[in-house]
Amino acid sequence: MLAEAFTEYAMDAMTDTGDWPESQLCYHKQKGIEVSGWGWDPESGTINLAVTRFSGLGTVDRLSKSEAVASLRRLRVFLERSLSGLHERLEESSPAFDLAYKIHSAARSADEASEAGVISSVRLFLLTDMVTSLEGETAEPVGEIPTTLHVWDLARLHRLESSGRTRERIDIDVAAFNGEGLRYLEAPSGDPDLKSYLLIVPGQLLADLYVTYGPQLLELNVRSFLQARGKVNRGIRQTIIDAPERVFAYNNGISATASGLRFSASDDGDSRIVAIEDLQIVNGGQTTASIATVHNRDKQPVEDVFVQAKLTVVPEDKVADLVPKISRFANSQNAVSEADLTANDAFHVQLEKLSRGIWAPAIDGAGNSETRWFYERARGQYADALARERTPARKKNFKRIHPSTQKFTKTDVAKFENTWAQKPHIVSRGAQKSFFEFMDGLNTDGKEPPLPGVPYFQQLCAKALMYKRAEKIVSQQNFGGYRANIVTYSLSLINLTTENRLDLGTIWRRQAIGTQLERAIEEVCHDAFDVITHPPGGQNVTEWCKKSDCWERMQDVEVDLDYLEPELINDDADPGESSGEESILEQISADDWRRLVEWIEEERNLSSHQLNQARTIESLIRRGRSLSSAQQNGAAQLVRLCTEHGFEFSGEPAA
Q1: N or C, which end of the chain has less CB nearby within 10 Å?
Q2: Angle (nearest 5°) at CA 648 between 647 and 653
Q3: From CA 466, how far away is CA 585, in angstroms rounded?
Q4: Residue 25 in contact with residue 15, Cβ under 8 Å?
Q5: DSSP readout, 190-243?
Q6: Final residue in a domain of this structure, among 285, 309, 334
C-alpha cells in the first residue's frame, strides 16, 4: 500500500533526525480509533504513536485543521482504549494487538511492572503528504501521562529533504517554558566565531524540553543512545531523587550549542536569554534524560534541581566543523573512544565516493542502460543532486541513471550487513540500534575501520537487491504485519543454512536475485512468521523479535534448500580437477596465505565464510598438514577469486 510506504518513509526520516527512536508499522482502523505506526524508547519510557493521512494525489493538497485534529483525536482514543484493555478484543497475531498489549502492560504502576518499562510520556504524531496549518497545539495529559502533539506534513518533510540536514532545528522560546528566561554570564573570548555563556538551568525546564523534543534534543551528543545504564547515570538519578538540592554541587553540568540567541530585559532590569535558536545538548545527555525520567516516570518533583550549563553560540555555517569538536572535548564523564567520534566518517565518505563512480551492469533487456546505486550519506543528498539538474531533460536523465529504487542510507547499510551477519534480532531493535551495532563491529579494538573497496561496494549492493526483493515477496504473502522482522529473519536463516555461500557476484552482475533464491525466501518467510508470532509465555511479539532467544528458536527450524545449490559459490569443485589445483597451491607459501587472510580482513570484499576458509587453509599449511580434495578445490577457488580482485601472491613456493 502506498499509505504504508509513506508512513515508513516518514518514520525513517524522523529516525534520522532523532525524533523517533525506532519505528514499527501498525495499521489499524475501526470506528472512532486509528493508528498507523509506533516507536518505543524503553529507557526514557516514551512511546510515539503515529496516524497517517495520505492522499496519494501527487499534488500539493491541503489538510484542513479540523481533519487534522480529528485524526489525532482517533489516535488518542486508540491510546486511551489500549490503556483500558483494547488488546482483549483484538486478534492476537495482529500488530494492533501487539501494540495495544504493550501500552496496557507498560502503563501499569512501577510496583506492578519493571521500572524501565513504564510509560512516562506519550508523543502523538500526524503524518501526511498534504499541507496543514495545525501546529503549536497543546494536548491534555492522558490520565497522568504527559502528552504532546507533533505534525510532519509535506512542507516539513520537504524542508528536511531539500536542506540536506540530518536533523531539524530546535528553536526554543525559553520564556514560554519557564515564564521569565534565563540569567547568564558572558564568558570572555578572543574567537570571533564563538561566544560562550554560563547559565544556571532549572531542572523543570530540562525535563519539559526532553518531553517535548526527546532524543532529537541530543542528536549531536555522541552518547545520545548510551541511555541510563552505567554507574554514572544511576548515580545521577539517585541524587535527583534523594538529594535534589545537591545536583548542582555534584554534577558536572551540561554543554550546549546554538546558532543564535535572543535577549530581553526582565522586570528587575537584568538581561535574560528568552529564545535559543537551533539548540543541541552536546554533553550532559544523561543528566537531561535522567531529570526527565525522574520527573515523568518516577513522578518525583524536580523544582529544587538546578544544573550549570555552558552555552556556545556557533555560526550556522560552522556547525558541522566546530560542534563535533566541542562534543569531543566536552565528553569526559564516561569513556568515549576516538573511534566513536571520528572513525566512522571516513568509511561513509568512501562509500559515498564509490557510489558516485561505480556503474551497475545493465539489466537484461535494458540495452546499454547502465545505472548507479546512490548512497545517501546524509539525508536529502539525492533530492539535492536532482535539484541541481536545471532542465527537465537533465532531471529525467539523472533519474534514469540513479533510480530511486537504488538509493540507500547509512541505516540501510547496517540493516543489510547485520542481516547478512545473521543478527536479525539486532535489526529488529530499530534503525539506530542496528546502525550502532554495525559501526561497533567495524571499530574493533578502537581501530579505524578499513576503507571499503569496489568489491565491498558491489557485494553490498547485491545484499541490497536481495533485501529489497525479499520485502516485496514477504508483502505478497499478506501476513498482515511484521514485514521488517520477517524479512531479516528469513534472509538470516537462508544465509546460515547456505553457510554464507550465496553468490553475491552473480547477483551484482545480473542486478537481480535468482528464481531459486526467490523460492527460498517465499518458503522460509512462512517459517519466520510462525516463529516470531508465537513467542513463549505470551510475550510481546516485537519485543520477542529483539531477543537472541528468538533467533535461536529460528535456527531450530529445519529447511531443505538443496535446490539453491546452483546459486551458491561452489566450494567443492569436481574432484577430478584436484591434481591441477595441487600444482597451483604448491606455488603459495604459508606466509602468502597469512597475507591473504590479512588482505581479506582489510578489504572486506569476501564473505565471512571465505575468510574463515582462508584462515583454516593457512593454519593447515603452516603446520605442514595435507589438504583434503575439497579443501584443495576451495583453496584454488579462493586463489583465483582473490587474484581477480587485485591480490598479488609473492610467488615463493610453499614449504
Answers
A1: C
A2: 130
A3: 34
A4: no
A5: --TT-EEEEEEEEHHHHHHHHHHHGGGGGTT-TTTTT-S-SHHHHHHHHHHHH-
A6: 334
Average pLDDT over residues 126-142: 82
pLDDT tens, position by position, 488-538:
999 999 999 988 889 999 999 999 999 999 999 999 999 999 999 999 987
Place of cell 570484499: 605
Alpha helices in 297-343 (DSSP H): 319-330, 338
d(C-alpha 365, C-alpha 194), whole Å: 58
Q: How high is the pLDDT of residue 230?
A: 44
Sheet with 271-277, side-by-side order of all strands: 172-173, 271-277, 260-265
- Mapped onto helix, strand or coil, the DSSP state of residue 132 is strand
| pLDDT number for residue 307 | 93
| % of the chain at pLDDT higher than 90 | 30
Assess contact for 456 and 605: CB atoms under 8 A.
yes
- Residues 201 and 198: their CA atoms lie apart, in Å, by 10
Distance of alpha carbon 277 from alpha carbon 297, whole angstroms: 29
Q: How confident is the model at residue 577 (pLDDT cuts 50, 70, 90)?
A: very low
In this prediction the pTM is 0.61
Asked whether residue 155 falls in the same domain as residue 232, the answer is: no
Establish if 626 belongs to a structural domain.
yes
DSSP assigned state of 182: B
Q: Is residue 23 situated within a structural domain? A: yes
Same domain, residue pair 402 and 541: yes
Query: Number of structural domains, the chain?
Result: 4
| Strand order, beta sheet including 147-152 | 24-30, 33-41, 46-53, 121-128, 147-152
* Alpha-helical runs (H) found in 285-409: 285-296, 319-330, 338, 344-357, 381-387, 392-401
